[in-house]
Write a structure and sequence with these properties.
The chain is mainly β. It is 0% helix and 50% strand. The protein has no helices and 26 strands. The strands form seven sheets. Strands 1, 2, 6, 7, 23, 24 and 26 form a seven-stranded antiparallel β-sheet that branches. Strand 6 and strand 7 form a beta hairpin.
């Protein structure tokens, strides 16, 4: 069960708990957030927006459902100039009867409203057509490649590939959606690819897609899009308004999917700081157990 707002929340089968709710559109009393840079989030209408430094981000999924307050660690996108995807920073490649990908338009309206997305046509023939770039990595570390895609009509399109790890053929439609693939690096460089290949089940012979906002980062899932560097979110909670004394206690962090995580916490000068390494970045409620 989740609650929106601030105050007491009656947990199922247990006594009411004191805490902070993060249902937006503003932080509840006693919660404060600082961040040294702007950072992105998805609005209720599905658009990508950027909150100013120190601005709270109440993120939504692709269908407009509220996820909660986004709390993330710092990130530097491994892909430079990640918004516009061009032949210069994503060279085309082909094999056999495949055709070199064609960059049709480089001024398509992107998820953030800017004319910086690219429209690219892929024709695989009996083999493959792709765009790719190599990124420096640490062997044995898991990385994630993500990108926004859109097509004129709903249907199978291209796939993502990281070195030898193939994603499935993606079903892409007329709404911008973000797709991702993760894999463990086997060497000091990792090939990031957008690929149309006959060896991947369901791949059409040709696909034209709009592409924008590639991101490459450590981890198994994408964090919020960063054009370059995103600073960490620092969220502090003032427990003095609840009469909580300094010292150790356990906090329950409830996430957007209904799951929760318990963390030992130290209250100092009446305050605690929310960790940035929680199991999920979308927090709906924080309460004292």
């Amino acid at each position: 069960m989740s609650a929106i707002g601030f105050g007491l929340w009656p947990g199922a089968g247990r006594r009411a708990q004191t805490g902070f709710g993060f249902g937006g559109p503003a932080l509840p009393p006693g919660a404060a957030l600082t961040r040294a840079s702007a950072a992105s989030f998805v609005t209720a209408d599905g658009a990508l927006a950027f909150a100013a430094p120190d601005g709270a981000r109440f993120d939504h999924d692709a269908d407009g459902r509220l996820r909660g307050l986004m709390i993330e660690r710092a990130l530097t996108n491994g892909i430079t100039a990640p918004g516009p995807i061009t032949a210069a920073n994503w060279p085309g490649d082909t094999f056999g009867s495949g055709q070199l990908p064609t960059f049709i338009d480089s001024s398509v309206t992107a998820p953030d409203g800017t004319p910086t997305a690219s429209r690219i046509a892929f024709v695989r023939g009996s083999d493959f057509a792709r765009i790719a770039r190599a990124e420096a990595v640490v062997p044995g570390t898991r990385y994630c490649l993500s990108v926004w895609l859109r097509a004129a009509a709903e249907g199978p399109a291209i796939s993502l590939r990281l070195d030898g790890a193939n994603g499935e053929t993606l079903i892409v439609g007329p709404r911008w959606r973000r797709y991702a693939l993760s894999a463990v690096a086997e060497s000091a460089a990792m090939s990031c690819q957008l690929l149309l290949w006959s060896a991947i089940a369901g791949a059409p012979e040709a696909a034209t897609v709009d592409i924008w906002g590639a991101q490459f980062e450590p981890g198994s899932a994408p964090s919020s899009f960063a054009a370059n560097t995103r600073a960490a979110d620092v969220v502090t909670l003032d427990w003095r308004m609840h009469g909580v004394a300094d010292g150790p206690m356990t906090l329950r962090y409830q996430f957007d999917d209904g799951a929760a995580e318990h963390r030992p916490t130290m209250i100092a000068d009446g305050r605690s700081t929310v960790p940035v390494d929680l199991a999920r970045p979308w927090v709906r409620r924080i309460e004292r157990l």
